[in-house]
Amino acid sequence: MRQNDPDVAPEVVVVGAGCAGIAAARALAAAGKSCVVLEGGPRVGGRAYTATLGGAPFDHGATWLHQANENPLTPFVGAHIDHDTVRGRHLHLGDRFATRVEMADYLRACDVFEEAIANAPQEPDRAVSEVVPKDGRWDATIGHWLGAQINAAELSLISLRDYVAVDLEGPNLLPREGLGTLVARLAEGLPIRLNHAVTRLRWDGPGVVAEGAWGSLRAGAAIVTVSTGVLASGGLRFAPDLPPGVMEAIHGLPLGLLTKYGFRATGHRRLGMPPFHSARREGAGGMSWIFWPFERDHVFGFVGGARAWELSRQGPAATEEAARADFTAMFGAQGAALLGEAVITDWGTNPLFRGSYTHARPGHHESRAVLSRPLGGGRLRFAGEACHSRFAGTVAGAWLSGEAAARDLLDKTAAVADPS
User: Fold this and answer.
1) 170 and 86 in a common domain
2) 227 within domain boundaries
3) Which listed residue, of 63, 114, 337, 354, carries a Cα 20 to 30 Å from 167's Cα?
4) Residue 96 and residue 233 share a domain
5) What whole-number distance in Å separates Cα of residue 271 and Cα of residue 16?
6) What does the DSSP 8-state code read for residue 148?
7) Would the pLDDT of 302 be above 80?
8) How would residue 416 be classed by pLDDT, with cut points 50, 70 and 90?
9) Strand (E) positions, 274-329?
10) How many domains, the chain?
11) H or E segment at 125?
């Protein structure tokens, strides 16, 4: 393996030390290519980040390994639980939780709703909201759940083709150590420079030059893994400018917002909720909650879509207040008194991310493939969850995309070295 000499230009510069950047760097290192990973923040992992709540692991971003039987990170996971095997769902109907009969009716309506999406003609592409049931008792609740709370954006904003293509199944593994901890562990030993935000990337050849307040770094090629939120906002500029088709793809793959919050319990009451069960309220606009993971003394949950963006603009105190109100609406004063120390995530306002994960606007499913194509004769490649047409929005998609970008670069390099 070629060692990285700080005085010698690396063969590849990787911009961003999230899942895609880590996967790309690991693949390059395994092939003996010198690379440097430039990370704008003070840590690795990107949108997979584990901190603590009450001394226990708490994932601020990515939380589950979805479709674990095909997930590239599954072989690395330590102690964990398949959340699907222990999850219980509870739906609050305004003054009480739904009965078993009502939950069965709700779940049947979910099947009908999702069958309508799966069976709808995908051409011409249009918003998911145009093909789903709208008049049933549960339809607004289901639409809110599948849109804002799962995909971080309302169904009216999401491409039907993309929704079907990236719809994932279980198993959904919940790592005991936190998914962010797992990802950070996979970055150990890589040549990563933290607090090295790249603000401009020159790719006018023959190689590339990454520039920032820290200085500049020349390399033979670049793999850029920052979010489409950063790219769309001009947080990373390019010289020359990116082609119009690439910019169109970036704007066609915006980041939605799923703000995660966690609360530590102030006492020993558990509100009759077993560990790993979830609860949410009927209708559109509510939040979602998961109780006592691994029997820890905290609950966590999410608010997504337009409401998450609105609360994010008002600041973390607004999200915390809204979450407490949502919890109180289900559990009354007893529930309100239970919520103590809070953690509120900042994905919407953090300039290193500007959102949670991508969805494709109607007509833009193919933008994922467009964004993943190499530019400048292979000098510039993009990678990340936005670039993966199957596992978009997940750490799996980011990881696979990073590996693919590195592998493509290695293949092109080998072809040039041996034209025969």
Assistant:
1) yes
2) yes
3) 354
4) no
5) 42
6) I
7) yes
8) low
9) 278-281, 288-291, 298-304
10) 2
11) none
pLDDT digits (tens, 9 = 90+) for 366-413: 999 999 999 999 999 999 999 999 999 999 999 999 999 999 999 877
- For strands 35-38 and 12-15, give the pairing: parallel
DSSP 3-state of 280:
strand
Q: Are residues 18 and 142 in the same domain?
A: no
User: Domain for residue 185, yes or no?
Assistant: yes
Tell me the C-alpha distance between 1 and 168, whole Å: 37
Q: What is the pLDDT of residues 146-166, one digit of tens each?
A: 999 999 999 999 999 999 999
Q: 406: closest CA among 113, 30, 17?
A: 30
For strands 173-175 and 80-82, give the pairing: antiparallel
- Distance CA(404)–CA(191), nearest Å, equals 19
If residue 29 lies in a helix (H) or strand (E), which one and from where to where? helix 19-30
Q: State whether 167 and 184 are in the same domain.
A: no
Residue whose tokens read 């923040």: 41
233-267 per-position pLDDT tens digit: 999 999 999 999 999 999 999 999 999 999 999 98
Token code pair at residue 117: 């999406």
For position 229, which CATH number holds?
Answer: 3.50.50.60
CA distance 33 to 211: 21
Asked if residue 244 and residue 167 are part of one domain, the reply reads no
CB atoms within 10 A of CB 412: 15
User: In terms of domains, do 213 and 318 share one?
Assistant: no
**What pLDDT does 1 receive?**
33
pLDDT digit string, tens, across residues 52-83 = 999 999 999 999 999 999 999 999 999 999 99
Which pLDDT score, from 0 to 100, does residue 377 have? 93
Identify any residues that bridge with 193 across adjacent strands, giving them in sequence order: 38
Give me the CATH number covering residue 280.
3.90.660.10
Domain endpoint, select from 344, 374, 396? 344
Is residue 288's pLDDT more than 80?
yes
Single out the residue of 277, 274, 226, 278 nearest to residue 253, CA to CA. Answer: 226
Q: What percent of the chain has pLDDT over 70?
A: 97
Task: For residue 74, tell me if it sits in a domain.
Answer: no
pLDDT tens, position by position, 306-357: 999 999 999 999 999 999 999 999 999 999 999 999 999 999 999 999 999 9
Integer Cα distance of 290 and 280 in angstroms: 9
pTM score: 0.95
Q: Which domain holds residue 367?
A: 12-46+178-254+362-417
Q: Check if the beta carbon of residue 6 is closer than 8 Å to that of residue 16.
A: no
Instruction: Report CA-CA distances (Å) from 244 to 107, 173, 198, 250, 294.
Output: 44, 39, 22, 10, 48
Look at residue 65 and tell me if it is in a domain. no
